[in-house]
Design brief:
Blueprint (H helix, E strand, L loop, with lengths): L6 H24 L8 H8 L3 H28 L8 H20 L5 H25 L5 H17 L5 E2 L5 E3 L7 H9 L2 H11 L3 H7 L1 E3 L14 E3 L3 H26 L3 H14 L13
Antiparallel strand pairs: 1-2, 3-4
Helix pairs in contact: 1-3, 1-10, 1-11, 2-3, 3-4, 3-5, 3-10, 4-7, 4-8, 4-10, 5-6, 7-8, 8-9, 10-11
C-alpha cells in the first residue's frame, strides 16, 4: 500500500497547485500574445522572414504549455493515494519542455540564432515523424521526407548553410540539434535530476529502489533465497526535490517568455516570489531577481 506523504510535502504540493492557478491568471491578463514594443515584435520587423520568427514564438509558447500541463499532472499524481513512479516521468517531461522553451525564447540571443535553433527543432520533429510513419507502414513517408527538403531549402534561402555530418549526410537544419540532456544542463542546470528522473522512467532498479519502493519491515513473507519483499512508497525528500526543481524549470521558461514577449515582469515576479516563499526557497535561487 502507498504511504501518506508527510505534511511538508502536502504543503509543497498545495503551493505548486496555487502557483499554477496564479500563472493561469497572469497569462490570461497578458492576452497570450506578445506586446507591440517587445523583443519579439522587434525581431518580426527586422528579420528577413517574419514567418520564421512567428514559428519560433509558436514553438516556444507551445512548449511552455506542455511544461505547465505536465506540472499539473504531477500535482494530481501527488494527491492521496499518491503515485510513486509516474511523478518522475511527469517531472522529466517538465524539464524537457522547459529546457526547449528557454532555449528558443532566450532573450539574450539574436534573432538569427533563434531562427537557427527553431529550424533545428523543426528538423528533429520532422525526422521523428518520418520514423513514425515508417514504423506503421504509411505511404506518407515520401511526403514527410519532401517536407524536410522544403524546410532545408527555406533555411538555405535565409542564408543558413546545409548541416552535414562527416559522411555528408544531413543531420540538422539551421544547426545541429543538441541532445535534450545537454539542453537541460545548459538552460536549467538540472542534469543530475534529469538523469535521476530518466532512470525511474526507464525502470532502473537502483533508482526505483530508493525513490518509489520501500522494504517491507513487518511480516516479511517467505520468498526464495535472500529475496526481500518491497512495497510502493514515495521518498519524501525525493518528491520535495522533484517538486522544487519542476517549479524552477517551469518558472524559468515562463520568465523567458515574459521577457521576450514584453509582458508585465513585475506581475510575474510577484507570482514567482509567492510560490518560492511558500516553498521556503532562498533568495539565491530566485534567478529573476538578477535580470
Amino acid at each position: 500500500m502507498r504511504r501518506l506523504e508527510p505534511e511538508a510535502v502536502v504543503q509543497m504540493r498545495e503551493a505548486v497547485s496555487r502557483f499554477l492557478n496564479d500563472i493561469s491568471e497572469f497569462v490570461n491578463s497578458e492576452g497570450i500574445v506578445r506586446t507591440s514594443n517587445s523583443q519579439a515584435a522587434s525581431e518580426e520587423s527586422s528579420f528577413q522572414e517574419a514567418e520564421a520568427v512567428h514559428t519560433v514564438q509558436s514553438q516556444g509558447a507551445t512548449l511552455v504549455e506542455v511544461a505547465g500541463d505536465h506540472t499539473g499532472a504531477l500535482v494530481k499524481m501527488l494527491q492521496v493515494p499518491i503515485e510513486t513512479i509516474a511523478p518522475w516521468s511527469a517531472g522529466r517531461a517538465v524539464l524537457e519542455a522547459s529546457a526547449l522553451a528557454t532555449w528558443l525564447l532566450d532573450p539574450s540571443i539574436d534573432v538569427r540564432t533563434r531562427v537557427g535553433r527553431s529550424l533545428s527543432f523543426r528538423y528533429e520533429g520532422l525526422y521523428q515523424q518520418v520514423k513514425f510513419l515508417r514504423s506503421v507502414g504509411s505511404a506518407d513517408v515520401k511526403k514527410a521526407q519532401e517536407r524536410i527538403d522544403l524546410v532545408e531549402q527555406e533555411a538555405v534561402n535565409m542564408g543558413f548553410r546545409p548541416v552535414r555530418d562527416g559522411r555528408d549526410r544531413r543531420n540538422g537544419i539551421g544547426q545541429q540539434m543538441p541532445s535534450i540532456t545537454d539542453l537541460v544542463r545548459l538552460m536549467l542546470h538540472e542534469e543530475s535530476l534529469y538523469r535521476l528522473a530518466s532512470a525511474v522512467t526507464h525502470a532502473h532498479f537502483w533508482a526505483l529502489r530508493h525513490l518509489s519502493f520501500r522494504l517491507v519491515t513487518s511480516q516479511q513473507p517467505q520468498l526464495p533465497g535472500e529475496q526481500r519483499a518491497m512495497q510502493k512508497g514515495a521518498a519524501p525528500d525525493g518528491i520535495a526535490l522533484l517538486l522544487f526543481s519542476v517549479v524552477q524549470a517551469f518558472a524559468r521558461a515562463l520568465w523567458f517568455q515574459c521577457l521576450y514577449y514584453g509582458w508585465n515582469r513585475d506581475h510575474l515576479s510577484g507570482v514567482l516570489d509567492g510560490v518560492h516563499d511558500r516553498l521556503g526557497a532562498r533568495e539565491q535561487v530566485r534567478f529573476w531577481k538578477s535580470k
